[in-house]
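User: Run a structure prediction on this.
Assistant: Running it now.
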Amino acid sequence: MNDDVVDVRTLRKPDKHPAIFAAFDELECGERFVLVNNHDPLHLHDEFESEYAGSYGWDYLERGPRVWRIGIRKLTSTPLPRLLCNSTLVAGADSDATGAAWKLATRGRDLDSNIIRLPPAGTIGRHAGPDVDVLVHVLAGEGELVTENGALALTPGALVWLPRRSSRQFTAGSGGLTYLTVHQRRQALTLTTRSS
């Protein structure tokens, strides 16, 4: 077998993983390349497990001490569907943590998603949303969404559409508020919370 070789020993550290994932993305299902590195890439293996669980093969061909060679094979045409978390456990966690309690963190995604937790009476102040539509699904607690022309009650199970650039403010009730957001991937948005 004549495998392509991806030798990252001379690359700058920040360039290594992007080069390896780019080579993996170029593979057809069933193909592999041989990674050559100057150390055991355990962190890289963790990233493959996070991004491509069940969709890649990882075979050590040589294990140091100076050179590591690993055969990395693409086993499926796309990453496999997978369970990301149990939102009821995140929403019901007994924690004083506020802000993003969970976020979608896979590298090659087209969506962003977060579970946001506001403390009792916490708010995300009035602001115009980004240039993407957002779905909000209330998981736990209660509160209200203040719009340009009134307020909507937020209770568990409520599914809310926030049109792009619409004005909104979230205020949690006495038991706090936890909700899931889903939207097209975009630049990172920093949310700040404050208690009333």
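DSSP finds three helices and twelve strands in the chain.
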